[in-house]
Amino acid sequence: xxxxNKKRVILVLSCVFVAIFTYMFSTELNRSETIQTxxxxxxxxxxxxxxxxxxxxxxxxxVAMEQQKHKQT
Length: 73
Hints:
The protein is mainly alpha-helical. It has helices spanning 6-30, 55-72.
């Protein structure tokens, strides 16, 4: 048999209220505003996506570009 006394009911209700209030407050802080953007059509343009990801490959590419410049001059 469950014993209901006033002190226990108030304690349980206050815990539930605090939990709900905390959840609502935390979700409101995490909500980000939506920013509208415009995507314009691209015509006669070339988009190049470079898949190089390692820093070593980038340095290697820069060295090769510098060597090409020195050969041309």
